């Protein structure tokens, strides 16, 4: 079947799968879409024959609540990374931020981050990034169905985004910072929904 799990911080999606494989003594356990280790929220777990549904789940729309910290850029596009640049943050208001967010609604092109699980010549991009190697990444078409500002407390802002398969919210935060002229890095990320599966119905990780 499919078990909705609330992933905690500091654990990888693979570690959740491995733990549940031991706990449930199930030979086949998978997940319906990777979450970054620092991200929290809904991680659908597929058990037994349900693992055949993995392509279906990974293709479902997802919803996130993300907090971006303005005034800096990092090599990982989140605050855990090495700071690359710092910039002053002007007195932005909700109208200005809302207008910037609106630019990302619809189909757009997004360059995947180096710190990602995508492959390049048989190796994960994050493995190359950790070695200090950067390779050219082709832009990918992604879809943002809706994006709304939840709160503004400079230098941080929180937005809710509903998006399609393959969208990197870290990159969305970085691109938002570029649009505002301040730079930005992702400070917090919570996945609240994957298709019909919702965080409020999930089993807590701890």
Please report which band the strand proportion falls in: under 5%, 5-15%, 15-25%, 25-35%, 35-45% or over 45%.
35-45%
Computed CA radius of gyration, to the nearest angstrom: 17 Å
List unreliable stretches of 5+ residues: none
Based on DSSP secondary structure assignment, what is the total number of beta strands? Answer: 14
Task: Give the biggest beta sheet.
Answer: 10 strands, mixed
Structural class assignment: alpha+beta
| Series of secondary-structure elements, N-terminal to C-terminal | EHEEHEEEHEEEHEEHEEE
Quote the average pLDDT: 90
Give the % helix: 10-25%
In whole angstroms, the N-to-C terminal distance is 21 Å
**What spatial form do the alpha-carbon principal axes imply?**
globular
Number of helices: 5
Please summarize what this structure is:
The protein has 206 residues and is an alpha+beta fold. It is built from 5 helices and 14 strands.
Explain how this protein is built.
By secondary structure, the chain is of the alpha+beta class. Helices cover 21% and strands 38% of the residues. The chain has five helices and 14 strands. The strands form three sheets. Strands 1, 2, 3, 4, 7, 10, 11, 12, 13 and 14 form a ten-stranded mixed β-sheet that branches. The mean pLDDT is 90.
Layout of helices and strands:
Layout: E1 2-7, H1 13-24, E2 29-31, E3 40-47, H2 54-58, E4 62-70, E5 72-74, E6 83-86, H3 94-102, E7 106-110, E8 119-120, E9 123-124, H4 125-130, E10 140-153, E11 156-163, H5 169-180, E12 184-194, E13 197-198, E14 203-204
